[in-house]
Request: fold
Amino acid sequence: MSADDISRALRRIGHEILERNRGSEDLVLLGIPSRGVPLARRLGAAIESVEQVAVPVGALDVTLHRDDLRRHPVRTAQRTSVPDGGIDDKVVVLVDDVLYSGRTIRAALDALSELGRPRAVRLAVLVDRGHRELPIRADHVGKNLPTSRGERVHVRVAELDGLDVVRISGGETR
Reply:
């Protein structure tokens, strides 16, 4: 995906979120570090450009809720920031860059339960690459990219990496 593809996908996801929620009332966007946070901010800006109302945006660190800490114990915890007003009785949209096994989202749901009780939780991802290990699916998807297990999806965002691009690498060679 090019920068223009990413921008179009985020605008479309923003419109889908507004349609499903019937406006921006009671919406909270929480990005999952690291690349989900700038994507959540961009979604918030896209929604604000349509509704003329700012949607609260925050970050939800899932590090301590991951089920792979025994295998990968060295993970840097990121900052969780919940917008003023919290998440109780709000519609929380979790935002991440890539949906793969579903384990990060399971961890996010666990982390979210420590912060309050939302009315509903939805999931928006830039890329869904398949290969789910848990019964989790995204409500809003920028692009479905079927991949093999040997391939990797690399998402780069200008805020962290200096450019916007999605690339697939690896895979089986012939």
Observations:
- Residues 5 and 53 are 25 Å apart (CA to CA).
